[in-house]
Protein backbone atom coordinates (compact mmCIF):
# COMPACT_ATOMS: atom_id res chain seq x y z
CA UNK A 1 0.00 0.00 0.00
CA UNK A 2 1.18 3.50 -0.84
CA UNK A 3 -0.19 6.60 0.87
CA UNK A 4 -0.53 9.53 -1.52
CA UNK A 5 -2.10 12.99 -1.74
CA UNK A 6 -3.79 14.96 -4.52
CA UNK A 7 -3.84 18.75 -4.14
CA UNK A 8 -7.22 20.23 -5.07
CA UNK A 9 -8.88 23.65 -4.86
CA UNK A 10 -10.55 24.31 -1.51
CA UNK A 11 -14.11 25.50 -2.30
CA UNK A 12 -13.98 28.69 -0.23
CA UNK A 13 -14.14 32.40 -0.95
CA UNK A 14 -10.37 32.66 -0.55
CA UNK A 15 -8.47 32.88 -3.84
CA UNK A 16 -6.05 30.05 -4.60
CA UNK A 17 -7.10 28.12 -1.46
CA UNK A 18 -5.99 24.49 -1.63
CA UNK A 19 -6.56 21.26 0.24
CA UNK A 20 -5.23 17.71 0.11
CA UNK A 21 -7.19 14.60 -0.82
CA UNK A 22 -5.56 11.52 0.64
CA UNK A 23 -5.80 8.14 -1.06
CA UNK A 24 -4.24 4.74 -0.58
CA UNK A 25 -2.94 3.01 -3.70
CA UNK A 26 -2.64 -0.78 -3.99
CA UNK A 27 -1.09 -2.67 -6.91
CA UNK A 28 0.97 -1.50 -9.85
CA UNK A 29 0.12 1.26 -12.31
CA UNK A 30 -1.07 -0.10 -15.63
CA UNK A 31 -3.22 -2.81 -14.08
CA UNK A 32 -7.02 -2.66 -14.39
CA UNK A 33 -8.07 0.22 -12.10
CA UNK A 34 -10.62 0.05 -9.29
CA UNK A 35 -11.91 2.97 -7.21
CA UNK A 36 -13.26 2.15 -3.74
CA UNK A 37 -15.44 4.85 -2.15
CA UNK A 38 -16.53 4.63 1.49
CA UNK A 39 -19.67 5.53 3.41
CA UNK A 40 -20.76 8.74 5.11
CA UNK A 41 -18.66 8.80 8.29
CA UNK A 42 -16.11 6.26 7.13
CA UNK A 43 -12.78 6.49 5.28
CA UNK A 44 -10.72 4.63 2.71
CA UNK A 45 -9.20 2.24 5.25
CA UNK A 46 -12.49 0.34 5.20
CA UNK A 47 -11.24 -1.28 1.99
CA UNK A 48 -7.77 -2.36 3.16
CA UNK A 49 -8.60 -6.07 3.26
CA UNK A 50 -10.53 -6.06 -0.03
CA UNK A 51 -7.85 -4.00 -1.78
CA UNK A 52 -5.13 -6.39 -0.63
CA UNK A 53 -7.12 -9.27 -2.12
CA UNK A 54 -7.46 -7.42 -5.43
CA UNK A 55 -4.00 -5.88 -5.80
CA UNK A 56 -2.26 -8.87 -7.44
CA UNK A 57 -4.31 -8.22 -10.58
CA UNK A 58 -5.57 -4.64 -10.20
CA UNK A 59 -4.58 -1.13 -9.21
CA UNK A 60 -6.92 -0.15 -6.39
CA UNK A 61 -7.40 3.45 -5.25
CA UNK A 62 -9.09 4.11 -1.90
CA UNK A 63 -9.62 7.83 -1.26
CA UNK A 64 -10.66 9.50 1.97
CA UNK A 65 -13.46 11.86 1.01
CA UNK A 66 -13.06 15.49 2.12
CA UNK A 67 -13.23 15.79 5.90
CA UNK A 68 -12.46 12.12 6.49
CA UNK A 69 -9.38 10.08 7.28
CA UNK A 70 -6.19 11.85 6.28
CA UNK A 71 -7.84 14.21 3.80
CA UNK A 72 -8.08 17.87 4.80
CA UNK A 73 -11.25 19.18 6.39
CA UNK A 74 -13.16 21.77 4.37
CA UNK A 75 -12.94 25.37 5.48
CA UNK A 76 -16.51 26.09 4.41
CA UNK A 77 -18.63 23.37 6.02
CA UNK A 78 -21.58 23.90 3.65
CA UNK A 79 -19.43 22.36 0.91
CA UNK A 80 -19.72 18.92 2.46
CA UNK A 81 -22.04 17.58 -0.22
CA UNK A 82 -22.17 15.06 -3.05
CA UNK A 83 -21.09 17.58 -5.67
CA UNK A 84 -17.79 18.08 -3.85
CA UNK A 85 -17.25 14.35 -3.32
CA UNK A 86 -18.05 13.39 -6.92
CA UNK A 87 -15.78 16.14 -8.21
CA UNK A 88 -12.97 14.83 -6.02
CA UNK A 89 -13.42 11.26 -7.27
CA UNK A 90 -13.38 12.39 -10.89
CA UNK A 91 -10.34 14.61 -10.26
CA UNK A 92 -8.48 11.66 -8.73
CA UNK A 93 -9.25 9.45 -11.74
CA UNK A 94 -8.20 12.23 -14.13
CA UNK A 95 -4.92 12.71 -12.24
CA UNK A 96 -4.15 9.02 -12.88
CA UNK A 97 -5.23 9.18 -16.55
CA UNK A 98 -7.97 6.64 -15.87
CA UNK A 99 -10.71 6.79 -18.51
CA UNK A 100 -12.65 3.73 -17.34
CA UNK A 101 -12.79 2.20 -13.89
CA UNK A 102 -14.39 -0.49 -11.79
CA UNK A 103 -16.23 1.25 -8.94
CA UNK A 104 -16.89 -0.22 -5.48
CA UNK A 105 -19.09 1.99 -3.33
CA UNK A 106 -20.44 1.48 0.18
CA UNK A 107 -23.60 3.45 0.95
CA UNK A 108 -22.60 7.07 0.10
CA UNK A 109 -19.84 5.69 -2.11
CA UNK A 110 -22.42 3.68 -4.05
CA UNK A 111 -24.58 6.76 -4.58
CA UNK A 112 -21.50 8.53 -5.92
CA UNK A 113 -20.95 5.58 -8.27
CA UNK A 114 -24.46 5.95 -9.68
CA UNK A 115 -23.93 9.69 -10.02
CA UNK A 116 -20.64 9.07 -11.84
CA UNK A 117 -22.44 6.78 -14.29
CA UNK A 118 -25.02 9.49 -14.92
CA UNK A 119 -22.39 12.14 -15.51
CA UNK A 120 -20.23 9.98 -17.81
CA UNK A 121 -21.89 6.86 -19.30
CA UNK A 122 -18.57 5.32 -20.38
CA UNK A 123 -16.66 5.86 -17.12
CA UNK A 124 -17.75 2.74 -15.21
CA UNK A 125 -16.65 -0.68 -16.44
CA UNK A 126 -18.69 -2.25 -13.66
CA UNK A 127 -20.20 -1.19 -10.35
CA UNK A 128 -20.39 -2.85 -6.93
CA UNK A 129 -23.18 -1.23 -4.89
CA UNK A 130 -22.76 -2.07 -1.22
CA UNK A 131 -26.13 -1.74 0.51
CA UNK A 132 -27.59 1.22 -1.31
CA UNK A 133 -30.03 1.43 -4.18
CA UNK A 134 -32.64 3.31 -6.16
CA UNK A 135 -34.61 4.50 -3.12
CA UNK A 136 -33.63 5.23 0.48
CA UNK A 137 -36.45 5.38 3.06
CA UNK A 138 -36.81 8.54 5.11
CA UNK A 139 -36.78 6.58 8.37
CA UNK A 140 -33.33 5.15 7.69
CA UNK A 141 -32.07 8.55 6.57
CA UNK A 142 -33.20 10.11 9.83
CA UNK A 143 -31.53 7.34 11.80
CA UNK A 144 -28.23 7.84 9.98
CA UNK A 145 -28.46 11.63 10.12
CA UNK A 146 -29.11 11.69 13.86
CA UNK A 147 -26.15 9.39 14.42
CA UNK A 148 -23.78 11.08 11.96
CA UNK A 149 -24.87 14.56 12.95
CA UNK A 150 -24.20 13.94 16.63
CA UNK A 151 -20.91 12.05 16.62
CA UNK A 152 -19.44 11.88 20.10
CA UNK A 153 -15.89 12.35 21.31
CA UNK A 154 -14.49 10.01 23.94
CA UNK A 155 -12.27 10.68 26.93
CA UNK A 156 -10.26 7.49 26.39
CA UNK A 157 -9.60 5.08 23.55
CA UNK A 158 -11.24 2.31 25.57
CA UNK A 159 -14.43 4.37 25.85
CA UNK A 160 -14.41 4.93 22.10
CA UNK A 161 -13.84 1.25 21.38
CA UNK A 162 -16.75 0.26 23.62
CA UNK A 163 -19.04 2.64 21.75
CA UNK A 164 -17.90 1.33 18.38
CA UNK A 165 -18.67 -2.25 19.37
CA UNK A 166 -22.28 -1.13 19.78
CA UNK A 167 -22.39 1.04 16.65
CA UNK A 168 -20.78 -1.66 14.50
CA UNK A 169 -23.09 -4.53 15.45
CA UNK A 170 -24.87 -4.38 12.08
CA UNK A 171 -21.73 -4.62 9.95
CA UNK A 172 -21.38 -8.40 10.04
CA UNK A 173 -18.01 -8.45 11.79
CA UNK A 174 -17.19 -12.01 12.80
CA UNK A 175 -13.75 -12.15 14.40
CA UNK A 176 -11.73 -10.06 16.81
CA UNK A 177 -9.30 -9.29 13.96
CA UNK A 178 -12.15 -7.81 11.93
CA UNK A 179 -13.32 -5.76 14.90
CA UNK A 180 -9.76 -4.55 15.42
CA UNK A 181 -9.48 -3.44 11.80
CA UNK A 182 -12.82 -1.62 11.95
CA UNK A 183 -11.97 0.13 15.21
CA UNK A 184 -8.46 1.12 14.12
CA UNK A 185 -9.86 2.59 10.90
CA UNK A 186 -12.47 4.58 12.79
CA UNK A 187 -10.84 6.13 15.84
CA UNK A 188 -8.15 8.79 15.99
CA UNK A 189 -6.76 10.88 18.81
CA UNK A 190 -7.56 14.60 18.64
CA UNK A 191 -4.97 17.28 19.51
CA UNK A 192 -6.68 17.80 22.89
CA UNK A 193 -6.12 14.14 23.79
CA UNK A 194 -9.71 13.01 23.30
CA UNK A 195 -10.63 10.21 20.87
CA UNK A 196 -13.00 10.76 17.97
CA UNK A 197 -14.14 9.41 14.64
CA UNK A 198 -11.55 10.08 11.92
CA UNK A 199 -13.73 12.75 10.35
CA UNK A 200 -14.84 16.36 10.69
CA UNK A 201 -17.75 16.42 13.15
CA UNK A 202 -19.44 19.01 10.87
CA UNK A 203 -19.84 16.80 7.79
CA UNK A 204 -23.61 16.67 8.34
CA UNK A 205 -24.05 20.41 8.96
CA UNK A 206 -25.43 21.18 5.46
CA UNK A 207 -28.08 18.46 5.72
CA UNK A 208 -28.96 19.47 9.27
CA UNK A 209 -29.54 23.09 8.29
CA UNK A 210 -31.50 22.20 5.17
CA UNK A 211 -33.80 19.68 6.86
CA UNK A 212 -34.88 21.53 10.00
CA UNK A 213 -32.51 19.58 12.18
CA UNK A 214 -33.18 16.35 10.23
CA UNK A 215 -36.92 16.56 11.05
CA UNK A 216 -38.13 17.15 7.48
CA UNK A 217 -36.23 14.38 5.72
CA UNK A 218 -38.20 12.36 3.17
CA UNK A 219 -37.54 9.30 1.01
CA UNK A 220 -34.71 9.89 -1.45
CA UNK A 221 -35.48 8.78 -4.98
CA UNK A 222 -32.23 7.92 -6.79
CA UNK A 223 -33.93 6.20 -9.73
CA UNK A 224 -32.73 8.83 -12.21
CA UNK A 225 -29.13 7.98 -11.33
CA UNK A 226 -29.85 4.26 -11.17
CA UNK A 227 -31.46 4.36 -14.60
CA UNK A 228 -28.19 5.74 -16.00
CA UNK A 229 -26.26 2.65 -14.85
CA UNK A 230 -25.92 0.31 -17.81
CA UNK A 231 -22.71 -1.52 -16.84
CA UNK A 232 -22.67 -4.84 -14.93
CA UNK A 233 -23.68 -4.40 -11.28
CA UNK A 234 -23.05 -6.49 -8.18
CA UNK A 235 -25.67 -5.42 -5.63
CA UNK A 236 -24.74 -6.36 -2.07
CA UNK A 237 -27.34 -6.22 0.68
CA UNK A 238 -27.31 -6.87 4.38
CA UNK A 239 -30.40 -9.00 4.89
CA UNK A 240 -31.40 -6.80 7.86
CA UNK A 241 -30.66 -3.49 6.13
CA UNK A 242 -33.09 -0.59 6.48
CA UNK A 243 -31.22 1.53 3.92
CA UNK A 244 -31.69 -0.92 1.04
CA UNK A 245 -35.13 -2.47 1.61
CA UNK A 246 -35.69 -5.95 0.25
CA UNK A 247 -38.35 -4.84 -2.24
CA UNK A 248 -36.06 -2.15 -3.67
CA UNK A 249 -33.14 -4.57 -4.01
CA UNK A 250 -35.20 -7.28 -5.69
CA UNK A 251 -36.76 -4.77 -8.10
CA UNK A 252 -33.27 -3.60 -9.07
CA UNK A 253 -32.20 -7.21 -9.55
CA UNK A 254 -34.81 -7.70 -12.26
CA UNK A 255 -32.37 -6.12 -14.69
CA UNK A 256 -30.24 -8.59 -16.61
CA UNK A 257 -27.05 -6.69 -15.75
CA UNK A 258 -27.57 -6.98 -11.97
CA UNK A 259 -26.41 -9.73 -9.61
CA UNK A 260 -27.91 -9.54 -6.10
CA UNK A 261 -26.19 -11.13 -3.10
CA UNK A 262 -27.62 -10.87 0.41
CA UNK A 263 -25.70 -11.59 3.62
CA UNK A 264 -27.62 -13.06 6.54
CA UNK A 265 -27.29 -11.50 9.97
CA UNK A 266 -25.97 -8.23 8.53
CA UNK A 267 -27.59 -4.80 8.47
CA UNK A 268 -26.29 -1.58 6.99
CA UNK A 269 -23.73 -2.05 5.70
CA UNK A 270 -21.62 -5.17 5.07
CA UNK A 271 -18.12 -4.26 6.21
CA UNK A 272 -16.35 -6.18 3.41
CA UNK A 273 -13.88 -7.53 5.95
CA UNK A 274 -14.76 -11.21 6.27
CA UNK A 275 -13.81 -13.97 3.86
CA UNK A 276 -17.35 -14.57 2.55
CA UNK A 277 -17.94 -10.96 1.61
CA UNK A 278 -14.46 -10.44 0.12
CA UNK A 279 -14.70 -13.65 -1.91
CA UNK A 280 -18.12 -12.67 -3.21
CA UNK A 281 -16.71 -9.42 -4.57
CA UNK A 282 -13.41 -10.76 -5.93
CA UNK A 283 -15.06 -13.71 -7.70
CA UNK A 284 -17.63 -11.47 -9.35
CA UNK A 285 -14.92 -9.05 -10.52
CA UNK A 286 -12.92 -11.97 -11.93
CA UNK A 287 -16.01 -13.03 -13.88
CA UNK A 288 -16.35 -9.54 -15.34
CA UNK A 289 -12.68 -9.54 -16.34
CA UNK A 290 -13.04 -12.92 -18.04
CA UNK A 291 -15.91 -11.60 -20.15
CA UNK A 292 -14.18 -8.39 -21.24
Structural features, described:
- With 292 residues, the chain is an alpha/beta fold.
- It has a single domain, classed as Rossmann fold, CATH 3.40.50.
- The protein has ten helices and twelve strands.
- It has an eight-stranded mixed β-sheet, sandwiched between helices.
- α2 packs across α3.
- It is globular.
- The relative contact order is 0.15.
- The mean pLDDT is 94.
Would you summarize the structure shown here?
With about 290 residues, the protein is α/β, with parallel strands linked by helices.
Give the topology string: H per helix, E per strand.
EEEHEHEHEEHHHEEHEHEHEH
Average of the residue pLDDT scores: 94
As a percent range, the share of strand residues is 15-25%
Shape: globular
Q: What is the fold-level CATH name, i.e. the topology?
A: Rossmann fold
**Annotation, overall tally of beta strands:** 12
CATH class (first level) name: Alpha Beta
Number of helices: 10
Determine the N-to-C terminus distance: 27 Å
> What's the number of structural domains?
1
Instruction: Report the helical percentage.
Output: 25-40%
- State the strand order across the main sheet: 1-2-4-3-5-6-11-12
In CATH, the architecture is: 3-Layer(aba) Sandwich
**Rg to the nearest angstrom?**
18 Å
Fold blueprint:
Elements: E1 2-9, E2 18-26, E3 32-37, H1 48-54, E4 58-63, H2 82-95, E5 101-106, H3 108-119, E6 124-130, E7 135-136, H4 138-148, H5 157-167, H6 176-186, E8 187-189, E9 195-197, H7 205-210, E10 220-221, H8 223-227, E11 233-238, H9 246-252, E12 258-263, H10 275-291
Parallel strand pairs: 3-4, 3-5, 5-6, 6-11, 11-12
Antiparallel strand pairs: 1-2, 2-4, 7-10, 8-9
